[in-house]
Design brief:
The chain has helices spanning about 25-35, 50-60, 85-95, 115-120, 125-130, 150-160, 180-190, 200, 215-225, 245-300; strands at about 15, 35-40, 45-50, 80, 100-105, 110-115, 145, 165-170, 175-180, 210, 230-235, 240-245. Helices cover about 45% and strands about 20% of the residues. The mean pLDDT is about 85. The chain folds into two domains: about 5-125, CBS-domain (Roll), CATH 3.10.580.10; about 125-250, CBS-domain (Roll), CATH 3.10.580.
Length: about 300
Amino acid sequence: MKNISIKKILTSKVISVAPDTPLADAISLMEKNKISCLVVARNKKPVGILTERDLVVSLHLQTRLEGLSVKDLITGRLITANINIDIFEAMDILKTHGIRHLIITDSRGNLAGVITQSDIRNNLGFEYFVEIRQISKIMTKNIVTVERGASLKDVISRMADYAISCIVVEENRSPVGMLTERDIVGLLINGKDITTYRIDEVMNAPVLTIHLDAPVHEASRIMNQHNIRRLVVVDDNGRCSGLITQSDIVRRFEKRYIEILKDIIQEKEAALQKTRKQLNDKIILDNILHSSIDMAIVASDL
């Protein structure tokens, strides 16, 4: 599995905003550019990040966001990494901190770009898809679903509570629609009052699906083609079996990387043991030789 420098795959043309930027303007930028996050920067140095999930959680907590600025939503410690890390190190940081966007800085601490799960998925080698063939092996099986009549407010609350990026709408166990974090950003732009809508009035329909026996590379191809991050997985009867997301694909890649690291460690341990044995054999041989010489000296003195 080939290692890749982050420099080669990061998104360098990053849209950033100042902390005092009105939240409405920031949301407009996200919707206009179809991006999942905005870097918050001051004098070229990152001080925070605003994501689609931040907006969903904020809606869950306070329903309306009028009059707020970006700094009102950015909380917690900012996670950044140096531009000289590789793809495996980036994956480890994303996994360790449970994030989907990693801000990359240069040697002076200035903003150099952002690395996302999409960037990683788009750069997975062919050998990865040969090793992991079927979607059913890596998909998320236990997913959160709702019926057509569910209120939009309740759906947003469930997405925030479960920390999920989408929710599937079912009818007789068949997927009929989906609502994503990005869809919710679009609703904010249009000034929708989330307390007055049902999920079936704002969901994406029909929903893109893929069969559970389809290869993983086909799911990745469809995601790239439609610029999406997830697909509903269905069985032979068209019923919902799960969800395949770019997070699932990247997570399996992480597990494969760990397996490779274990193999490398075992190989090095075996080589070390061999070296130790050779060294011990040499010490024993040297001792025998020295003993023989000493005996010969004693014999000659008699």
